[in-house]
Specification:
Number of strands: 9
Largest sheet: 9 strands, mixed
Helix content: 40-55%
Number of domains: 2
Structural class: alpha/beta
CATH topology of the largest domain: Rossmann fold
CATH architecture of the largest domain: 3-Layer(aba) Sandwich
Order of helices and strands: EHEHEHEHEHEEHEHHEHHHHHH
CATH class of the largest domain: Alpha Beta
Distance between the termini: 32 Å
Radius of gyration: 20 Å
Length: 307
């Protein structure tokens, strides 16, 4: 099965690497060719445009930073749908606006192209190890057809139902992660100001009913002073915007999500949209005038921190 991958950023490059590692015939494209250099060196083919890529593969996977970019890559004259043959499949692995996916999927269907939304969750470090979770929305038969591709990039996958459903659950998981990040920062600052050893406090919380995946991973980055999770303030705000929009649409008051979104708005204003998302905790550090640091914590997450 020939697979094309478009979008080789912090997350996408690891997903593409997993496909290559599992023996798929891989063609790649990105606006920055240098991001593909390692993949090309290991045998991946390069395509100069989304259309050229789509003309030579059976499945096109996109992992892109915004709905606007997805629309351009898919629908432009030099885009995926200008090149993908009838019977092909588009798999969208970005966290995206479900309405945009539904609209593009309808256009694709008229050309005989199937769509699977397949956003991933679990963090860049899990993507690097091939253990990230994949959330699937679309026709069940198409899911079964593409299951080997899905299993090549993820340790677990969940079929959520028709197009749109995977986007909803993906936004929910990200919303929870950002809420947990802000809460974990507040918890560690309480420990610091209460005179506790932060390394011991980290382990105590990890072993308690108050733990979370985010505490067990991203708190380590804060304690190391790195904050480098491979995910930016801008991306966090995009996803929180999706969550609050869903709250309005579905009539669900999302008080914690709204408060968290405002924390990230302040974080972006203070540190910039390209700052790593865990820097939202630095807002608290700056307000209190105390850094949360402890010896022995990694500056980058690796598979050793996979929980």
């Amino acid at each position: 099965m020939r697979v094309g991958f478009i979008g080789l950023g912090n997350l996408g490059v690891h997903l593409a690497s997993s496909l290559q590692r599992n023996g798929f015939d891989l063609t790649v494209n990105d606006i920055r060719k240098e991001l593909a250099s390692d993949l090309i060196a290991k045998g991946a083919k390069w395509a100069d445009s989304p259309k050229a890529l789509a003309q030579n593969v059976d499945i096109v996977i996109t992992c892109l930073p915004s709905p606007a970019v997805v629309q351009k890559v898919m629908l432009s004259d030099d885009g995926v749908l200008a090149g993908l043959a009838k019977g092909g499949v588009w798999m969208e692995m970005s966290t995206n606006d479900r309405h945009v996916i539904e609209e593009i999927a309808a256009i694709a269907a008229k050309q005989g192209v199937d769509t699977l939304e397949s956003p991933v969750t679990g963090g860049v470090h899990k993507a690097a190890s091939g253990k990230i979770t994949v959330l699937i929305g679309g026709d069940k038969a198409v899911y079964e057809k593409c299951k080997k591709v899905i299993e090549a990039v993820g340790g677990k996958n969940f079929y959520m139902g028709p197009i749109g459903n995977a986007s909803i659950i993906k936004v929910i998981t990200n919303m929870l992660a950002f809420i947990h990040l802000v809460a974990a920062g507040e918890a560690m600052m309480l420990a610091k100001q209460g005179g506790l050893d932060l390394a011991t406090s980290f382990e105590a919380i990890k072993a308690s009913s108050g733990t979370s995946f985010v505490h067990e991973t991203e708190t380590q980055l804060v304690l190391s002073g790195s904050y480098n999770v491979g995910f930016t303030m801008d991306l966090a705000l995009k996803d929180l915007g999706f969550a609050t929009e869903m709250g309005r649409t579905f009539g669900v008051p999302l008080e914690l999500a709204a408060i968290t979104e405002q924390a990230f708005v302040r974080g972006k204003a203070q540190y910039g949209g390209d700052a790593w998302s865990p820097k939202v905790v630095k807002l608290l550090e700056d307000a209190v005038g105390v850094e949360l640091r402890a010896a022995g914590f990694p500056e980058l997450l690796t598979d050793d921190e996979d929980n």
